[in-house]
Amino acid sequence: MSVSIRSSTVLPAAREDVELRTADGLALVGELALPVDREPVATLVTLHPLPTHGGFMDSHVLRKAAARLPALAGLAVLRFNTRGTESPRGRSQGEFDGGRGERYDVAAALDLVAERGLPQSWLVGWSFGSELVLMHGRDPRVAGAILLSPPLHRAGDVDLDAWADFGRPLVVLVPGRDDFLRPVDARPRFARVPQAELIAVDGARHLWVGEPAVRRVLDEIVGHVLPEFPLPLPETWDGPTETWIPGRHG
Fold this sequence. Notes:
The chain starts with a strand and ends in a 7-residue tail after the last strand. By secondary structure, the protein is α/β, with parallel strands linked by helices. Helix 1 (60-73) links the parallel strand 5 (42-47) and strand 6 (75-80). It contains 6 helices and 14 strands. It has a single domain, classed as 3-Layer(aba) Sandwich (Rossmann fold), CATH 3.40.50.1820. It has helices spanning 60-73, 102-115, 128-136, 157-166, 183-190, 211-225, and strands spanning 2-4, 9-10, 14-21, 27-34, 42-47, 75-80, 86-87, 90-91, 121-126, 142-148, 170-175, 196-201, 236-238, 242-243.
């Protein structure tokens, strides 16, 4: 019997609490979600919004990516709390460092992916997480990156120019009603990166509230990471599901 995939739906995955170790000696808490019926075809390393304004590994778009994409698209999804960030999963050691010390957090996530032998890492950064991607994501282990609602507050032209030189794909989803950077202003900024693809999403806001906005984001992620994958993603599921409960699912 088919069931509708709703905001709180959790599809089957092999979910494991993980601990990331940074080069400066911190332990970060996270979760790795893997497909249960096959080897993953690619890996999403997700970076959450600003923790001083409520961002953490359970921020809803990232939580829903982990809840759905292992089953729907065969993707591995790594979520974690950057330094000093707390969620029902626990609190990562250290203190928020405004994007500076977080460079070690990004590297630690990629180290874990490499240690597990997971394929094709794509960074997915939302808001503050998008700035961590631009500032610290230029790692040869990265296949490409997807930015959600990039504010370009901490990351600037130097980082954009460095990503241009890096040469990896950069997909930029900019809400038409974003609170910080709207498409008309984002286009000239990201024009510095020849390989960047900027996608304006009419009607969406910075927080991507509502299932239509979430489905658009997840479709864009899958469509760019797995270009041959048939879209849109299914809105129903034939099989067991769970309901998301904080502390049990991240």
